[in-house]
Specification:
Blueprint: E1 2-6, E2 13-18, E3 24-30, E4 36-40, E5 49-56, E6 61-68
Antiparallel strand pairs: 1-4, 2-3, 2-5, 5-6
């Protein structure tokens, strides 16, 4: 998942990926000097389900729901005739 965050200099922020139980699975801390973050969270090893992206500065929080689902593999049957 690609995440882009812009924030004011002088404040810190945290970007968190949480499961439905509220456990933090991934985190990125932005220091006072950082004003932008453009990065990826590798969610390929997580099971299908609902997760939460949380961006917080300690006073305010922005939350977005993320749902992972894997499409089932379907077999393709083909008949090839050679002459």
């Amino acid at each position: 998942m690609v995440v882009a965050v812009d924030k004011a200099a002088g404040a810190t922020a945290d970007i968190l990926i949480k499961n439905v139980n509220g456990d933090v699975l991934m985190a990125k801390h932005l220091g006072k000097k950082e004003t932008t973050f453009r990065g990826r969270f590798d969610m390929s090893q997580l099971a299908d389900g609902t997760y939460q992206l949380v961006i917080t500065n300690g006073k305010e929080e922005t939350k977005k729901e993320v749902t992972l689902s894997t499409k089932p593999v379907t077999a393709t049957n083909r008949v090839i005739a050679l002459q």
